[in-house]
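Morning, I've got a small favour to ask if you have a moment. I owe you a coffee for this, so here goes:
>
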Amino acid sequence: MVRNFVRRRVILFFVAAALVVCAALGLTMLSAGGVAAHAAESHSTSHPGWTAVPTAGGELTGGNYYLTGDTPLETDLTVTGTVKLCLNGHVLTGTGTSSVITVDGGALTLCDCSTGATNTVAGVEYAGGVLTGGVGTTIGGSYLYGGGIFVGDGSVFTLESGTIAGNTASYGGGVYAGEQTTLTINGGMIAGNNVVNGGAGLYIEAGSQAMSTLTMTGGQVTNNRAENPNGDSYGGGVRTLYTDFVMEGGEISYNTASIGAGVQTNRGTWEIRDGAQIVSNTAVSGTPENALGAGAYVQATTVLMSGGRVSGNSATGGYAQGGGFYLCQSAELTMTGGEISGNSLTVRYDPTEAYPTADGGGVYLADSSFTMYGGAISGNAAWYGGGVSAWASTVDLLGGMISENEAYFSGGGL
C-alpha cells in the first residue's frame, strides 16, 4: 500500500542523483535569425569566410566571428548588431575590468563547433570553448552586473553551445539581462560563476511594463554559487524578475544560495514541461538563518508544471522550508504532471534561535495556492509536512499522487 510516514526521529534523507552530463559539442544549428551570409547555418573549425576575433577586442557591428586560439582581450567586446561568435574550442578571457561581452541593442549567438577540445578554468575542466574572466558592469552605482555577458535592454542572447564559466559579479555572475530582453538556452553550460547577491548563473531583471522572456530547451546551469556574508543570497542558478520563463528541457543543478538555490522567480510566469530538470541544488543559510526553496523560491509568480522533475534538492538552516518549492506572496502553482521527489530539509540548530523548523519537504506555501491535477510528490522529508506544508494558503488536491513522504513530527503527506 502506498502511504506516507511520520517518524519520531530526525530524518537524514539524501538522494544520490546520478547525472550523466552530455558534454559532446557537435555542429551548431542556428535559427533563421542568424546571419544571412551563412545560410547553411553549420560550420567547421576552419571557418571559411568568418572573421577572427581580434585580441584588441572592441565593437562587433555584425557578422560571424570565431576564435583562432586562446584570446585574452585587451578591450572587452561590445555587440551592436547581429553577431554569431564561435569559441572554436578555445578560451575567450575578459580584461577583468567589466563584462567580457556587452550586447548593446544587438543580438548575440554564442556557440562552439569543437569536438574533443577541453579547457581548464579555475581548476575545473570543461569540454569545448569557454568564456571567462569577467567581473561585471556598473549601472549608476557600485554594484556589478553580468560578469560574463551583459545583455542590455531590448537585446537578444542565445546560447547554443560552449561554456560561460569562472566569472564574478554582484548580480548575474554568468549572464545578466535587462528589460525587454529575449534569452534562449538551447545547449552549452553556464557553470562555476559566483555572485554576492543574486543570480549566480543567470539574472534577468525586467519591469512590469517591459517584461523579458527566457526559454530553456537544453543545456545546463550548474555549479554556480550566490553567497552573501552579510545576509541572504538569491538564485544560485537562475533568478528572474518580471520574466516569462518556459523550461522545456535542460538542467538547473548543483547550484547554491540561501534562498532559491536552483531558481528564484519574482513576478511573471513559469512553465515547467517534460524534459526540464531542477535537481541537486542546495540552500544553505547564511545570516539570518534562512534556507528557503532549495529547488525553487517563487514570489508572486504563476507556475504551471506539466512535466519535468524537481528532485534531490536540499535545504539546511535554522529555518529550512521548501525542499522542492517555496511559494509566497500570492504565488500560484498548478501541477498537472511531472514529479517533485527526494527533496529534504535539515535543521542546523542554533541555541540563540527560539524556534528552529523544517517545513515542506516537497512544497511549502505561505499566502499562496497549490492545485494538483496530476503528477507525483514522493519521497520528500521534513519535520512537518513531508510532502506539502501550507500556511495561510489554499491547497486543492484533484488528482495525482502524494506518497512515501516522511515527517519527523507530523504531516507525512500534508
